[in-house]
Specification:
single chain; alpha+beta; 4-stranded antiparallel sheet; 8 helices; 8 strands
């Protein structure tokens, strides 16, 4: 891969474009979160580099061309596998609605892995999901329903569709700071704490997406408390 430091003093416009454009593409690749787009960017950048190494048709740079071609083939294969995997993914209407509302930054294949270790629970009115000053063994996401949040004897807010329950204790490992009780019949998506932690520790896409989701959820709860 060429860099500015390796360019000769009398550079041409082809040298500038042939080295700058791929490096800018690779730089953008560090920003994208979706591995599928990363594969695409690598393929595009390497294709431009390959063309650059053919700039002298009488003396092509075969070593560089060979390496670029190898990277294109590897990433092309990975792209094909990822694309086929995502194309074959199917979600129920409820799962798709949750993905669109809560997990929209998470790739579909990573969301499918998350669903594979989750279970659905139907909870009656006045059901206590978590008790204050306890350790949670599961993480819940409300799909349909409404719950109240109580600290001590004071009602401080509500959690509703698209909100997590127990995520702060899940992340910190500390005791819960509030009691959460259903107000209506509530349908939740529930994860076992240990299974979810294991998935997050072994799947980078899931971990990064979950951190973003937790941050958004916390922000919405803080806004809810300020208006309560």
């Amino acid at each position: 891969m060429f860099s500015w430091l390796s360019l000769p003093a009398n550079v041409s416009i082809i040298d500038i474009l042939g080295t700058s454009i791929p490096n800018l593409i690779y730089l953008y690749g560090f920003i994208v979160k979706d591995i599928l787009w990363l594969r695409i960017l690598i393929i595009v950048g390497m294709s431009i580099e390959t063309g650059y190494h053919f700039r002298d048709l009488h003396s092509p740079e075969w070593a560089e061309i060979g390496w670029c071609s190898f990277y294109i083939l590897v990433n092309g294969w990975q792209f094909t596998m990822l694309y086929r995997e995502r194309r074959n993914l199917k979600f129920t209407d409820e799962e798709q609605a949750i993905h669109n509302k809560v997990f929209k930054s998470m790739p579909a294949n990573a969301f499918k892995k998350l669903l594979s270790i989750a279970s659905w629970q139907e909870l009656p009115k006045d059901y206590i999901l978590i008790q204050q000053h306890t350790h949670v063994e599961q993480l819940a996401l409300i799909s349909d329903g409404l719950c109240k949040v109580v600290i001590g004897d004071k009602e401080v807010g509500f959690v509703r569709n698209g909100n997590f329950i127990g995520e702060m204790s899940f992340l910190s490992g500390n005791e819960t700071t509030a009691t959460v009780t259903t107000i209506d019949d509530t349908r939740c998506l529930v994860w076992n704490k240990e299974q979810l932690k294991k998935l997050m520790s072994t799947d980078n896409e899931v971990e990064i997406s979950m951190q973003s989701v937790f941050s958004s959820d916390l922000l919405s709860k803080l806004m809810e408390q300020q208006t309560h």
